[in-house]
Amino acid sequence: MLLRALRFVAGALAGFLIWWCATPIYNDALASAAEKILSVDKRLCGPHAEDVDRGIFVHPRLCVAPSATIPADQLTYNIILLAALFAMRGRGIGGFVLSLAVVAITHLLSLVVSIESTYAARNGPWSEQHYSWIEAEAWVSVEFFWRLVGMFAIVFACWWLTQSATDRPPRESGERRRARAAAPGRR
Amino acid sequence: MTPRWKFLLRFGLLLVLFEVPLLIGPVDQHVVRPVSAWIASASGAVLRVARERVSVSGTIIASPCFSVDIQNGCNGLETALFLIAAVLAFPATTRQRLIATILGVTLIEIVNLIRVVTLYLVGCHRREWFESFHLAIWQTIVFATAVIFFAAWSRRAVARA
User: Is the Cβ pair A160, B156 closer than 8 Å?
Assistant: First the structure.
């Protein structure tokens, strides 16, 4: 129990340090990948995204449209929980690497959603001209849901799915149960 | 489909069912804000015991030093619903689920109360740390509480079954 708790704290600390130190490099990678996906949406005028002070600055290149700054580090800190939960378990590197890959994909998608949500609802008249009310509501709702619980639910799902047989709850075998029932002094 | 996937599917559906209403205006007004106001009031009481000169108005804890507004996502409600979705998705008896829900939600709200008090103190005395504490550290701790509580409870529930 104590060992698990210590492992959890150590994993959380390692996760926090990695998140804190790697954010600028990671944001750069996320920005360039998001750029390619966002280029599909012509309303964003071929956006260029770059890392600025732990956030991602988005500005259009091909026509006149507002720029936006996305607090990208707030989309990626769920790796702290991921590192802590896997460290607590103390084994299953393969599961951890696979989970990390899944979570990284969701980081990219959540950045795309966050940029779309910003352009759809937080750019005043420009948003109203380019996005319908339903579209804006949909982007904002998906972003809100993700940031509220989705980003933690995906970590929980990865952790839950990669539990090995040894992590499963202990089950008493029929033989042992019968033995216990037959033991003196027991009903 | 394996039991794990079945659990996750049920969990995902319940999570969406529980959390999406939090985005709706009337639910925010009549459920989320009163819960936030209650958290603000309780946190204000704790801070006053710690000799902080704070005043509470609705969801805002204010003082000359720092002010915090407890909004949707900062009152522990979303984490409590996350835990309830997991408990309901897991195969267990009604009694086990009820006990887990009561204990788990209480635990989450206590941790959230500590979070709000700590965040006020961090904002007051180390403002440059506030953003990191607000999300990366405390949000992780609150959700970790829910996940670890659920993991421990589910092991016991299966062992008893």
Answer: no
* B49-66 pLDDT per residue, tens: 988 889 999 999 999 989
> Are the beta carbons of B147 and A153 separated by less than 8 Å?
no
Give how many domains chain A has, as a whole number.
1
pTM (predicted TM-score): 0.88
Across the A:B interface, residue pairs with CB atoms under 8 Å apart total 80
The domain containing residue B120 runs over which residues? 3-160
Are A8 and B148 inside 8 Å of each other by CB?
yes
Best of B6, B14, B77, B143 to substitute, by most chain A Cβ atoms within 10 angstroms, is B143
Q: Which long-range contacts (CB under 8 A, 24 or more apart) does B129-134 make?
A: B132/A20
User: Per the structure block, which two tokens stand in for B44?
Assistant: 């204000």
ipTM metric: 0.92
Residue A30 domain boundaries: 2-163
Q: pLDDT tens-digit profile of B102-123?
A: 999 999 999 999 999 999 999 9
In a domain, A171, yes or no: no
Classify residue A44 by its DSSP letter. Answer: G
DSSP state of B68: E
